[in-house]
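Action item from last meeting closed. Structure (202 res):
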């Protein structure tokens, strides 16, 4: 049986914004993925000394943001684990449970590709899934440098695609909310409403 191609969109999603949704959909289309699974991190390892919104809120916002896309799903796999949410643990679990039927494509922005050499057990991770890096303002990926750092497997497993550069980040959205400036159209309307209703980021 032909394996399914599954996109994995991991993130803190604090909050989820249209940048996340746009890259997930563009990669789904370009790589003919059967679906994309959004996985909110319970405890992002690179944000351990920074305040992150309660996982339940980030999960709820992610769930409502993807509801209108039939190809998008959400998973609580990282929320069910305690301790920092290392991608290697998540992918090991997914490959063990679903690897016979699925090939995995981890979707990220170029900033995450540049950071990959710092990820826990990245060489094992590259054996478990592909990475698809999308454009992000200010981030230029040099694949020769990546191969020098991560080995030849980087050339086989990391795919860099050009996507429209979206000058959008959760950091900027949190800053806007703390100043009381508008975030309309930067996040889906349901997410905007949820943020105000729950008085997040004020
Ligand atoms: P923060 O500013 O809090 O770090 P963020 O906007 O970077 O938030 P994350 O949850 O950290 O969002 O990102 C999850 C994934 O989405 C990462 O791989 C990141 O590179 C990617 N991503 C986020 N925003 C964009 C964007 N505007 N363009 C391309 N990729 C993005
Ligand atoms: Mg980020």
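Sequence:
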């Amino acid at each position: 049986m032909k394996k399914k191609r599954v996109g994995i969109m991991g993130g803190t999603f604090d909050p989820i914004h249209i940048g996340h949704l746009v890259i997930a959909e563009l990669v789904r289309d370009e790589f003919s993925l059967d679906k994309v699974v959004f996985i909110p991190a319970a405890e992002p390892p690179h944000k351990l000394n920074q305040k992150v919104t309660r996982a339940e809120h980030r999960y709820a916002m992610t769930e409502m943001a993807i509801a209108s896309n039939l190809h998008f799903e959400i998973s609580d796999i990282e929320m069910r684990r305690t301790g920092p949410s290392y991608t290697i643990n998540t992918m090991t679990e997914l490959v063990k449970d679903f690897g016979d039927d699925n090939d995995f494509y981890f979707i990220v922005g170029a900033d995450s590709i540049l950071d990959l050499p710092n990820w826990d057990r990245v060489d094992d991770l590259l054996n478990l899934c592909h990475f698809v890096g999308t454009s992000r303002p200010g981030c230029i990926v040099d694949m020769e440098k990546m191969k020098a750092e991560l080995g030849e497997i980087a050339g086989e497993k990391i795919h860099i695609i050009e996507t429209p550069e979206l000058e959008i980040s959760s950091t900027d959205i949190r800053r806007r909310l703390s100043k009381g400036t508008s975030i309309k159209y930067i996040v889906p309307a349901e997410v905007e409403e949820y943020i105000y209703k729950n008085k997040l980021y004020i």
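Note appended to the action item: Residues 11-14, 19-20, 23, 108-109, 111-112, 134, 136, 166, 168-171 surround adenosine-5'-triphosphate (ligand 1) (CB under 6 Å).
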